[in-house]
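Hi team,

As requested, here is the filled-out complex form for the alpha-D-galactopyranose run. I kept the field names the same as last time so the parser does not choke. Let me know if anything looks off before we queue the next batch.

— J.
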Amino acid sequence: MPFSFLCRAVWCVVLVASASAQTAAPLPASIPTQIPGQNAILMGTAWYPEQWPESRWEEDLRMMESADVKVVRIAEFAWSRMEPSEGHYDFAWLERAINLAGKHHIVSVLGTPTATPPAWLTRKYPDTLRVEPGSQRVTHGNRAHASASSPRYREFCRRIAEEMAMRFGHNPNVVGWQIDNEYGYALMSYDEGTHRQFQDWLQAKYKTLDSLNEHWTTAYWSQTYDNWEEIPIPIGGHNPGLMLDWKHFVTYTWTSYQQNQIDVIRKHAEPRQFITGNFMGFFDGFDHYIITEPLSFASWDDYVGSGHVDPAYNGLAHDLTRGFKRQNFWVMETQPGAVNWSSLNNFLNRGEARAMAWQAIGHGADDVNYWQWRSALNGQEEIHGVLVGPDGTPVPFLDEVSQTAHEFAKVESSFRDTAPLSQVALLYSYDSHWAIQFQKHTEKYDDIGLLKSYYRALRQISQSVDVVSAYAPLDGYKLVAAPSLEVLPKALADHLLEYVSHGGHLVLGPRSGMKDEFNALLPQRQPGYLADALGARVEQYYALEKDVPLSGTWGMGEASIWAEQLATKASGGEVLLKYGKSNGWLDDQPAVVTRAYGKGRITYIGAALDDKLMAAAAEWMTQKSGVTAVFGPLPDGVEVSRRVGPGKQVFVMINYAQETRRVNLPRSMKLVLGDRQGDAVELPPYGVAVGVAGGK
Ligand code: GLA
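And here is what came back:
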């Protein structure tokens, strides 16, 4: 039965779920990230020909070709070269660069340059520059200095994007487009025009001030609004309803900013050219489920910064990006050894970047691009990592990139038409994340950290976890867990209950079901509209000063940071964990309750569990839900990912431990990097193996 819902604001999206048996999420019908005529998995780099004499291009492209670099992302900061003065466009140089790359079997992704408006534009039209909170207008010379909400700026963006699309929309060497660069990297503009747009947006959403006043409970602290013009932009702490609506307005602003360019590109470009944006993992400036909706697929920029890759966090960020549109994605940028913007710009260890590139592929990326090819001789990023030094010759790191790119080229066909396939989903919600950030209650509450603890434990068992919007179709999953679903309006509760009634197992974590879509408290106790199905409710929640003992079916351990005192209210509820001696209130009270409902089950975990208890919880959840391992037990430090396609499964195995690990394969398979059949592999530190087996 189709399920539709109206999401959180006037610019809602409608998702449709089909009710199928509780098996596994269906494979995507098509893989838009794989370009017809190109390898199924690609390696690329950001290339800035505008920074170099044309006589140098051939040599750069020759080096790229011999390294098996197949993609360049190009032009995203080159506005002043493409439109040197207002209305005068020069694309001849770019066309020559793109076509020369094509001769070297390198395709181009064109970035629209709207993160870097030229100096003539901002001088002549200073109203296009962003205004910071406190009314300071930013100056020219950095990037992201324009206002995404300025109608005049949008007009310039539309024109340059349209001119580019007219010129390159049919170029066979151009495979797709990236809109702008990392939107939201800078703040919104806080100018008067934007303020009015926000008030108009609120009026369109609420229609009447009575409705707004009621949903925001403005009777509190005399906040009642009698005129739309009285409503402020929230800066710092404010009414939680106003703060959440500001986030929705920011999402709306960037989505319409993006759409302005999509419209003109789609008008002129061949449909085969994709349109994407490069997002930033858990960056939370806007709701990514909404902004990625009109894109062909999502991409992200995967940087470690200081230190070394945390495979669980990085894998989670890949899976978050895959979940934006529930399909494969690209890594539009990744770290060429070191960056320049962190507190300590250490270099990744030898082999670590190769492991990261393969991790991306395992999690569903079909392209990995290094940022950047060669250092610009001046500019803010002079000493960022690169593949080619300022002298134009390779840095040692290029060896590792070439090795990985040669491997991609060698085994690419194994990945054709494949995508990860999971039995387990974790639900993520920007509204809940924001609501928690606005009122953390304990500064230690980290909803992403909690998501990661569920992810790590569940992935360890199942080797594949999807991270999807709470509103996504769920019927394909055997197990769905929502670690901090604080904002849980009625429509969402109905959606989740339908999943449970059909036989699914829903696990809710702490803080779930506390608020409605206006960030107002529900007039029920947690988990709100799901309390009846659970047959239990939260009596009281506690921000913890120190750890609290827990014991029960999952063994013994501790809760930290947050604990909720549960009480069963209906028959059939089973208490799985209880608190031990603590603050008096929690002593001997239920911490985890589970209950059968419809054909399925609903479980509530009211505390943040330690790693050992989390592992036991994951074991119980997966067993109870019939989740099976796709690979089998793994030695410590080894990550396995699986992609599935017609009649085949491809396993990417990576050893992040600092010693060699032996991995026993669940069955004999072809190890395609080493061209041999085997039933076990020895992986050195950062070692990678790719195994191909038939069937599902
Ligand atoms: C971001 C940007 C790039 C570059 C890199 C440097 O991801 O998109 O233009 O500045 O950071 O790490």
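Two things worth flagging: Residues 95 and 530 are 58 Å apart (CA to CA). Residues 424-625 form a domain with the Rossmann fold fold (CATH 3.40.50.880).

Thanks,
J.
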